[in-house]
Amino acid sequence: MAATAAISCHLSSKSSPDSVSLSSASSLSRSGHAIRRFPSVFISSPAIRRISCQTVSSAPSSSVNGKAKAGPKDFLHIDDFDKDTILSILDRAKEVKAQIKSGDGTYLPFKGKTMAMIFAKPSMRTRVSFETGFHLLGGHAIYLGPDDIQMGKREETRDIARVLSRYNDIIMARVFAHQDILDLAKYASIPVINGLTDYNHPCQIMADALTIIEHTGQLEGKKVVYVGDGNNIVHSWLLLASVVPFHFVCASPRGYEPDVRTIKRALKAGVSKIEITNDPKEAVRGADVVYSDVWASMGQKEEAEYRRQVFLGFQVNEELMELAGPKAYFMHCLPAERGVEVTNGVIEAPNSIVFPQAENRMHAQNAIMLHVLGL
């Protein structure tokens, strides 16, 4: 997948600046088959420390694969919504969370409603948070695992979308290919929520934003530093940075930076300061939040040992958190491989907020469902 326009970046270096290039390195898909990696920005000289990107030469598509912006009925990408809507959803999440915490079980907006939950890949947090949250607010969730549907194999996605629309009020899907969630939304007549694709994970980042607001007072203006693979979590952070102004830094090994088209998409919005770097130690200085994820995601486990060598120096450990400063919080979307991308000491430290973050998946998702259902 070739990039259609170059990124205009300012390069800061201890020696003479070098060029920014686009690459498309070979990798494994989450199903284990060889594919081309997302086009990525890489630094061609070890002397260059950071790419500080401010603008792009042309506007990227408003969604992946050239699809039009999602209608208001779906929650597929965070930047399908404006800042006021995103912040309104997060405010609603705080209200509904307080309602649930109060023990008052009279608020049942989902009473009489059903949700079909499609899982092409296994999950703990996504299933439990959606199912429990929908139940606590009066609804009934139906789990449809990989063997129940086999979307696109046993039955075409467009047929599944139209059938489930006649039984249910909402669909949540956790799938591999991003095109699957786009197709579900295209053919479903009810709201479709993206519970994760290989491209992005908007519900996770909404929960993360809620957690940051709870612990720091606001997201706007904060410095969030992600250390690790430029994966679907990073893409969602970039899309959030397209809507809400904050300082986002991604520190990844060369060749593992995020999708260049998504970087351009965020830069074109002109909302946030965005940096892509190969130096985690420089990246974390002055961070409000240091964020990590596994180095080998589901479907990449055959690469795990190789990635451990490539990602040496990108572990979030006590030394890195000390560089970030005493006020920096640590976040991780879980599951974590303790001793690999993060040390046990960092996860268990007082400034770790990974478990409030995990809890907030349920509350953020409840607010998202209330929004798309118009409740």
Explain the overall architecture.
The protein has 375 residues and is α/β, with parallel strands linked by helices. It has 13 helices and 15 strands. The strands form four sheets. The protein has a seven-stranded mixed β-sheet with strand order 1-6-13-12-11-14-15. Strands 8-7-9-10 form a four-stranded parallel β-sheet, sandwiched between helices. It has a two-stranded antiparallel ribbon with strand order 2-5. Helix 1 packs across helix 13 (354-372). The model is unreliable at 1-71 (pLDDT under 50).
Brief sketch in words of this structure:
With 375 residues, this protein is of the alpha/beta class. Helices cover 35% and strands 20% of the residues.
Label this structure with key terms:
single chain; plastid; alpha/beta; 4-stranded parallel beta sheet; 13 helices; 375 residues
